[in-house]
Design a protein that fits this description.
InterPro entries: DNA_brk_join_enz, Integrase-like_cat_sf, Integrase_catalytic_putative. GO terms for molecular function: DNA binding. With about 210 residues, the chain is mainly α. The chain has two domains: about 35-150, no CATH class; about 165-210, no CATH class. It has nine helices and two strands, in the order ααααββααααα. The protein has a two-stranded antiparallel ribbon. α2 packs antiparallel against α5, α4 (about 80-85) runs antiparallel to α5 and α7 crosses α8.
Length: about 210
């Protein structure tokens, strides 16, 4: 008690320790490892034979570092992204499927790879009435996507999220070549991934765990 006021949330209070509260120490270190280009190509070839639309979604996720829900809904943005790309934009606006409904600009790390992925997707959409994965709703489309990518070997440490890990590595290299310092690099990668500029430290710990360059 201090000045007649009870200090309830004293951090040194043993009753408030994680152990006393039944909480385990949470480790935020990343559980995946980056999916290499060769590994991606092999999985992509398998998926493409069974479902080209899923392959297109997978490719967009790989070159733009999108979350699964964002990538599955990317068909809504492919045409506008192609226009932005052709207009010389340095980033693309991600609107659909974002966490918390917060749109973000994702930097174009490899312009040729992004253009190839978008044109590939557009060609499929033209044949499938504007869709990449033809399902009645987003939930079913995500299930179809996950089924095919896992069947192609993307599971465990190489689960679909490992494509975002790969994008993070590419983005960091891109920003380093552009002359940015480490703190700004991780802030920018964080923004590209949709975590916001204040979570650079978190992104470094999760996406670059055990990386000598970090």
């Amino acid at each position: 008690e201090k000045d007649g006021r009870l200090k309830i949330a004293d951090p040194s209070n043993p009753l408030l320790s994680n152990e006393a509260l039944g909480l385990r120490d949470t480790c935020r270190d990343g559980k995946k490892i980056p999916l290499s280009q060769d590994e991606f190509n092999k999985a992509f070839s398998k998926v493409e034979k069974n479902n080209p639309g899923v392959a297109a979604v997978m490719q967009i996720s790989y070159v733009l570092g999108l979350r699964t829900k964002e990538a599955v809904q990317s068909c809504k943005s492919v045409n506008s992204w192609l226009r932005e790309l052709d207009s010389g934009h340095d980033s693309l606006l991600v609107v659909f499927g974002t966490k918390g409904g917060r749109p973000r600009d994702t930097t174009i790390i490899n312009r040729d790879a992004v253009k190839h992925a978008l044109i590939y997707a557009k060609n499929i959409m033209d044949k499938q009435n504007g869709k990449l994965i033809d399902c009645p709703n987003i939930k079913q489309a995500i299930n179809v996507y996950r089924y095919h990518v896992r069947k192609a070997g993307l599971s465990g440490v190489k689960a679909p999220h490992s494509m975002r890990y790969h994008f993070s590595q590419e983005a960091r290299q891109f920003y380093r070549k552009s002359g940015y310092g480490d703190k700004e690099i991780y802030a920018r990668v964080s923004m590209d991934l949709g975590h916001g500029d204040g979570r650079g430290r978190y992104v470094k710990q999760v996406y670059f765990k055990g990386d000598d360059e970090s």
